[in-house]
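Agenda item 2: pantoate complex prediction
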Amino acid sequence: MQQFTTIADQRAWSRQQIRAGKRIGFVPTMGALHEGHISLVQQARAHSDVVVASVFVNPTQFDNPDDLANYPRTLAADAKMLEGAGVDVLFTPEAREIYQEGHCTFVEMVGPLTDKLCAATRPGHFRGVTTVVTKLFSIVQPDVAVFGEKDLQQVLIIARMVSDLNLPVEIVVAPTVRDADGLAMSSRNRRLNPDMRERALGLPRGLQLANRAFEHGERASLKLIEAVANELLVHPGVDLDYCNVVKLSGFQEVDQADDGCVLAAAVFIDGVRLIDHIHLGRETFPVALDD
Ligand code: PAF
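Presented output:
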């Protein structure tokens, strides 16, 4: 596996691959990798000839300086995992390489995808994501890029942006990968001690209970949200950031759920923010890994 830190080196390599007729797959990450990321690499390999992964903790998508400072950074271990997974190039630019002196151009989406859920409680977050993903696409020039379904709002926003800006990149969405206890894999999970993890499990359990209620005929969004909130109350010390029912198509909040809806929630466990969601009425949490 080759590793590049400059835009010039990454571009030169990508240009060579394009000239050779190779299809480039891309997995952008912020590092602190886990099996969920490796599943993204596997998808990228299945859809392309050569695979680039980036590790870049993007400062413009953090609305909270403590969150940025505490974001786990494990580059040596990440590189080992990516090499083991068959990645051809690891792109690890410094922040000053991506945001050069005087940088003042951003990509910002408006409308229903960016006025609720994570967008409502993390101002500026998605502007940072759309900006960096556009820049990374312009540097890596992938044919296909893979994102995890766990970050559902992010995936929908990126897919919309690619379509709105006519970017020549196919977006592939890979299913959420969970640990055997049901917690969705996330780089932030490393910040959970066993007690915090037990509290965090209220999130997937609450979503599953709400889904069961939906399957038994409950349609009132408030009741489904209440099912999540009640489960979170079982272990004190979980702060609910948001919990909403939205239509997948159009991303509108609804009072009455149907099977085109998603129940999505974010919680804080002693300052660690975790998100998760469930597609109402669909098979519950299909992808789990054994420890
Ligand atoms: O999902 C992430 O890890 C980040 O938001 C992304 C897409 C790599 C952009 O920084």
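Discussion summary: The longest helix spans residues 125-140.
Owner for follow-up: CH.
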